[in-house]
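dumping the sequnces here before i forget
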Amino acid sequence: MEAVLHDSHHEDHPTGLMRWFTTTNHKDIGSLYLWFSLLMFFFAGTLAMLIRAELFQPGIQIVQPQIFNQLTSMHGLIMIFGAIMPALVGFANWQIPLMIGAPDMAFPRMNNWSFWLLPVAAILLSTSFFVPGGAMAGGWTMYPPLYIQGGISYDMTILAVHIMGLSSIMGAINIIVTVLNLRAPGMTLMKMPLFVWTWLITAFLLVAVMPVLASVVTMLLTDRHFGTHFFNAAGGGDPIMYQHIFWTFGHPEVYIMILPAFGIISTIIPTFARKKLFGYTSMVYAVAAIAGLSFMVWAHHMFTTGMPVAGQLYFMYATMLISVPTGVKVFNWVATLWKGSISFETPMLFALAFVCLFTIGGFSGLVVSIVPVDIQLQDTYYVVAHFHYVLFSGSAMAIMGGIYYWLPKWTGHMYDETLGRIHFWLTAIAFNVTFFPMHFLGLAGMPRRIPDYALQFADFNRLVSLGSFVLGASQLIFLYVVVKCIRGGAKAGDRPWEGAETLEWSLSSPPPYHSFTVAPEVK
Amino acid sequence: MADHAQTYYVPPPSHWPLVGSLGILTLASGFILLLAKVAAGPYVMGVGALILIYMLVGWFGSVIREDRAGKLEGQVDTSYRWGMMWFIFSEVMFFGGFFGALFYARVFTVPDLGADELLWPGFVAQWPTAGPGLKEQFTPMHAWGIPALNTLILLTSGATVTWAHWGLKRGRRDQAKLGLILTVALGFTFLCLQAYEYLEAAFTLKTGIYGATFYMLTGFHGLHVTLGAIMLTVITFRVFAGHFTPESHFGFEAVSWYWHFVDVVWLVLFVFVYWL
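..and the predicted 3d for all of it:
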């Protein structure tokens, strides 16, 4: 009976391209997600380089304003949906089954489709640059009424968002079911590695809010083409209504992009501090609290749209409240380091930089949560600085740290430590040169999303652009290190990091194609 | 089940997801061409829809074969249950977005538009409305005609599908067959009445915020009823083909969950779109 159930043809899968098109293996699919994410990271990063080249000096030099708007809109959209989210899902695919002792994801075929929908969306978004009128230029938030007026690429963007939403929902359901149903015997919820916990909660957020995004962009589509008046006051609708529904999705989305990063950091720090994570239980509750609060603070993105004072006060205080569970997390990371025997390999460098720089992003978030301050800073470079501190030095640097941390496990080779450290230091320094001065630019009143600026901002902008070019170029080192590590290098043992304790390190490096054919016993 | 990993069914490599992605790419491209008023648009969409249908038939077909082979029992069955539950939750949130628009418009937007005499002089804030700029006169849908009848039909269909479930669980397959046929018939009756209501309606999708919320909510609900009815039809054929046992019939249960979900959405819709 057992032999009948366990199909023998599992081991022989198609080779070449068809292996990747048809795979039902969580490791293959995880790799696909990560490569796709890296490709999109460079694509959207190139758009950012063009933005910074235009902003190198005042006046219009390289791109016309319409093109500039396309660059900022698509940079944001692709970085969020194409680079950061797929990278984190890639980690989930690779790591969750390994960390909970599962044979694979709960729905391996659906897992494949979750990934292969993303290239469809990417095709729509990247070809939209070449249709009449150029790519979508209404900002990644797609606000009406501007969005209603755009050309054909705006429809392509809406459909791409639908398709990416479909992908995210299926991916999230897969993760939730895997975590709830496929844990090894003995692995109770409160024994799960924190990375798995953060993804469980993130997946819940995804299932809850991606459909809301789908519904609101559907309303945009019908307003554009089928004569509805959802966002048109003449028909009794309201453009502000769009913002409310959009940010009902958008704020949880912010945490979707950071919670798994918290999980990665909470895995790396104990390993290299050679101590157990301080306050595991409070970490779990903090993540859950952040996720719960994320549904109740959306209107802090729209303080300047006009809102009763009571509403502004509520959203201000609710937003500030999020800093309590976030503070718990930062405290626990620092407490884990306390009296640890710390070593500074590349993953740890990224993790430590994350703790410092993400905290700066958290503090600037507290600043803009204050209503009167936000009204001054709305749509200035201060906001750009704030969300790049949480998204680049937060999510993206956690992703890079996680890649360095697990590459030895995934490939069986050690990465080049020297190059890794060079990549880290260049990234960390260039990141701050790029984004720290933006705080000053924003405080001085430089508006975001504008291709030209007053002469007084020229010096800082030149510095920012130079920093961004170094930041962009440094990522080529990252690509080189990853490729080099896949192609060969010093053999990594089963447990290259002696402080690492989660289940994946009990397997060989790289792990067998089907990891836990026999579920491990967790004490 | 200490050795659950050996019994957990991991399907072999499958080409269906790839077919599905090609279908969606074709469908989306066709839709974009249609919106750009290119003549080929509808045909490309048609091809995309056919590819998608081919994928759905093929993919679900292989799942049914796996089910018949007993591969989807035990822990896999639990996965399917969790999966269906979270899928329905995501659908609830999708409708939540449109209900959010309805409530926001009724509670905030329309009263605000009528509150300022300088902004839209003479506009009286009331529901339903086509908005201050359109000045369109129309007769809204009354709750106590076809919509009330449709409520009765859907509630009855919820009861018949449960009756069919009882039949299946007690091994009375004739009861299951009859219950399913009744449910499918009630489902399609609902859809016919809904279509008739649309044809007779004295307003359109373009009738301001009332027309927009009415048609989007009832339209998406109708789409879900259509899907549910098709799924129930498949299940009916499967029961006639001798599938399912009193102990194991998750395909049936998943569809009946979906049907109850569609039912509940209709109740909320009836109260807030038609009645109040």
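The first helix of chain A runs from residue 2 to 5.
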